[in-house]
Design goal:
This protein has 15 helices and 9 strands. By secondary structure, the chain is α/β, with parallel strands linked by helices. It folds into 3 domains: 39 residues, no CATH class; 205 residues, Vaccinia Virus protein VP39 (Rossmann fold, 3-Layer(aba) Sandwich), CATH 3.40.50.150; 110 residues, Helicase, Ruva Protein, domain 3 (Orthogonal Bundle), CATH 1.10.8. The chain has a 7-stranded mixed β-sheet. It has a two-stranded antiparallel sheet with strand order 1-8. GO terms for molecular function: RNA binding; rRNA (adenine-N6,N6-)-dimethyltransferase activity.
């Protein structure tokens, strides 16, 4: 660009610096135009690592490229310093806090969490990432306050913590939320969890009764926690760039969790949301559904632990068992069906759809079933 401009000047036989041709302010603009793109670029303005500057990691790069990131495993490093600073701020850390960080990567967020918290316990499945985040903490002189557990977050036993922060592969979002909120008979005693989730998944999590996206996931989470949208995060803020944008949400365990058996609730919500847009009458009149409830209601001590994702219909082996039950106990099944339909009618639920019901209404229906001897686990 600079060479072409200079050649043009010689061709036209004029000197752009001469006052006869340009006043001073135009001469300065001409010089700016002649500067090449390379000259104008900042030394550290690497397009593949554009968020390097202002990193909290003591001037170190967010990713030193010493190993290859695997998109198939959901390895996308958040590198935008403004977003990282915001996450650390909205986490609401106290000087006495222990933070559970799931998926620390190379430590871009870890470095910021260690600035405010007493201790960070990170869970990372990739040994290369473990080495990277430990080395970074050592360079910053805070390695004595960082513990890294090498392992699968879904299989690792979490220590006690105050705040959870997670930037994780989207594929484990649902089971991770289940582990945080439903791994015990009552939600854990942590204050909150700040999670970076796939945008579409977060919208489903934030849905309320009546929304087209309202689902079993949202109903289950809202039973034991409040959900808050904090901010949307562009896919361009990650390296390598994923295909979708993200959303940051906060889950805060409720102190007023209803008195309900959580295993029973999870099995009940699974039944209700097996087809969320059908009426409850249509759902509970299905022969195989009736047979399943009859078998559970006639048994004691059977616990079916159900996690958050909407699951497929009963497997084929279970369907065969239900067929046998229908053939052998036709009259009993018919009687039980009338009983279930009667419960729905008595509460005014027969014509209602699960996607339109609040948790209070669903809890009332579950109570009616239990009072009449119908069990879901």
């Amino acid at each position: 660009m600079a060479r072409r401009s200079a050649d043009l000047c010689r061709l036209l036989h004029f000197d752009p610096l001469h006052k006869a041709f340009f006043p001073s302010f135009l001469r300065s603009q001409f010089h700016l135009h002649l500067r090449t793109k390379a000259a104008r670029r900042r030394p550290d303005d690497d397009p593949d690592d554009r968020h390097r500057r202002n990193d909290a990691g003591g001037g170190s790069e967010p990713w030193d490229r010493s190993f290859r990131l695997d998109k198939g495993r959901g390895q996308h490093l958040l590198t935008n310093p403004r977003v990282l600073d915001t996450i650390a701020r909205v986490a609401g850390l106290r000087p006495s806090d222990t933070v559970l960080e799931i998926g620390p990567g190379t430590g871009n967020l870890t470095a910021r969490l260690l600035q405010s918290a007493r201790r960070v316990v990170a869970v990372e499945i990739d040994p290369r990432m473990v080495d990277s985040v430990l080395a970074r903490a050592s360079r910053l002189g805070v390695d004595d306050r960082l513990t890294v557990i090498t392992g699968d977050a879904l299989k690792t036993e979490f220590p006690e913590f105050d705040i959870c922060v997670a930037n994780i592969p989207y594929g484990i979002s649902s089971p991770l939320i289940a582990k945080l909120l439903f791994s015990t008979s009552r939600p854990s005693s942590f204050r909150s969890a700040v999670l970076l989730l796939q945008k579409e998944f977060a919208r489903r999590l934030l849905a309320v009764p009546g929304d087209s996206e309202f689902n079993r996931l949202a109903a289950n989470v809202r039973l034991v926690a409040t959900v808050e949208l904090l901010m949307d995060v562009s896919k361009k803020d990650f390296v390598p760039c994923p295909k979708v944008d993200s959303t940051l949400v906060r889950l805060q365990p409720r102190t007023d969790v209803p008195e309900v058996d959580l295993d029973e609730w999870l099995a009940f919500s699974r039944t209700c949301f097996s087809n969320k847009n059908k009426t409850l009458g249509a759902i509970f009149k299905q022969k195989k559904r009736i047979a399943e409830l009859l078998g559970r209601s006639n048994s004691e001590g059977i616990s079916t632990k159900v996690f958050m994702e909407e699951e497929q219909n009963d497997n084929r082996a279970k369907e065969n068992d239900d067929d046998d039950l229908l053939e052998q106990n036709g009259s009993e099944v018919s009687y039980f069906k009338e009983k279930v339909v009667g419960i729905l009618k008595s509460g005014g639920f027969e014509g209602k759809r699960p996607s339109k019901l609040s948790n209070e209404e669903l809890l009332h229906l579950l109570q009616l079933f239990n009072q009449n001897g119908v069990q879901f686990r």
